[in-house]
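Thanks for the sequence, V.! I ran 5-formyltetrahydrofolate cyclo-ligase right away. Repeating your input here for the record:
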Amino acid sequence: MAQEPEWQNAQSIATTVSNLFEVPTKPIIERALSEGKQVYLPKTMPHRQMAFLPFSSYDDLVVSAYGIPEPVYQADLVERQPDLVLVPGVAFSTSDRYRVGFGGGYYDRFLAQYQGKTVALVPSIMEFADSDWPVEEFDMQIDKLITLD
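Predicted structure:
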């Protein structure tokens, strides 16, 4: 990931704290911080909205109702346009760059207003040639899929 131009050109990175079946994000977070990049993590909000807030320490995160460690909400720290968003999912189509997320539409709602770069790190088991799932009008394409072996 660090060799990708999207990463190299970004001063701010938005990612998640991964769960057991996602690409591990701890090394990504640590790399970004070591390179002087600002890291943002998502906070789920009412009405299936999401806000990205600065990561300061794993000790400062609280576990959401979904079991995901999140930053505490602070309105004046919300970042609406990080340089790069690493988008999670459970399935990704290489032909059209659509994904299946976790069912809440949080990322699609955020990405509909987002103007920066999006990248997904895709384990080969989650990679599909085509969208073998319904693509809805509100689904957002990812700019770049990076297949991991």
